[in-house]
Write a structure and sequence with these properties.
The protein is an alpha+beta fold. Helices cover 18% and strands 24% of the residues.
Length: 176
C-alpha cells in the first residue's frame, strides 16, 4: 500500500509540474508596452524599416503611419476631417496601444472634432494612407509636401540616398 501511495504522489507531482510549466509559458507570453501581443481591441505601434526611408512607425497591420504638417503637436490638434480623414484615416486609440520600438513616453492621444480619440506620437496625430494597400508601402510620403511617414521619435521620415518609395500623385483628392 505504501508503494501505491508513493506512485500516486509521484504521478500527481509530475502532473503538477506539467501544469505549472504550462501556466508559466502562458504568463511569459510576449508583451509589448506591458500588454500581451494580440490582445483584442489593442492598437499596435511598431518601429519598422522601409527601404529609402529608414525606420518609421507602422500600425498593427504593418501599414505605415503618417503625420500631417497642418496639424499641431503642442498642444496636439488634428486638422484632417471630412474627405481628408477618408483619404488619411486617423489612427484611433480604441485601447491602450502595444509598442515595439516606440517609447511609451512619446505616445498620447488627442480628442478629434467628432469626439473620437486619435493616437499621437510626440504630440503629432497619426494617420494611415488609403493608397497604402500592403505592409511596407509608403505611398503617402511627401504628398503635397505636407504628409510624411512618422519616425519613432515623432519626426518626419526623410528620403535616404537613392532608394525612394513610390509616391502617390498629389491630385485625385489625396493631398489634403
Amino acid at each position: 500500500m505504501n508503494r501505491f501511495r508513493t506512485g500516486l504522489i509521484s504521478a500527481v507531482a509530475a502532473a503538477g509540474v506539467v501544469t505549472l510549466s504550462a501556466c508559466s509559458d502562458m504568463s511569459s507570453a510576449s508583451t509589448v508596452g506591458g500588454a500581451p501581443m494580440g490582445q483584442p481591441g489593442h492598437v499596435m505601434l511598431e518601429a519598422t524599416t522601409i527601404a529609402g526611408l529608414g525606420t518609421v512607425v507602422a500600425g498593427g497591420d504593418g501599414k505605415t503611419l503618417y503625420r500631417y504638417d497642418k496639424d499641431v503637436a503642442q498642444p496636439s490638434m488634428s486638422n484632417c476631417d471630412g474627405a481628408c480623414a477618408t483619404t488619411w484615416p486617423p489612427a484611433l486609440a480604441t485601447a491602450t496601444p502595444m509598442l515595439d520600438g516606440v517609447d511609451q513616453g512619446m505616445v498620447g492621444t488627442v480628442v478629434r472634432k467628432d469626439g473620437s480619440k486619435q493616437l499621437t506620437l510626440n504630440g503629432w496625430p497619426l494617420y494611415e494612407f488609403s493608397n497604402d494597400k500592403a505592409p511596407g508601402q509608403a505611398n503617402g510620403q511627401g504628398v503635397n509636401g505636407a504628409w510624411f511617414a512618422v519616425t519613432p521619435a515623432g519626426g518626419k521620415a526623410q528620403l535616404q540616398g537613392g532608394g525612394a518609395p513610390e509616391q502617390a500623385p498629389a491630385d485625385g483628392g489625396s493631398g489634403y
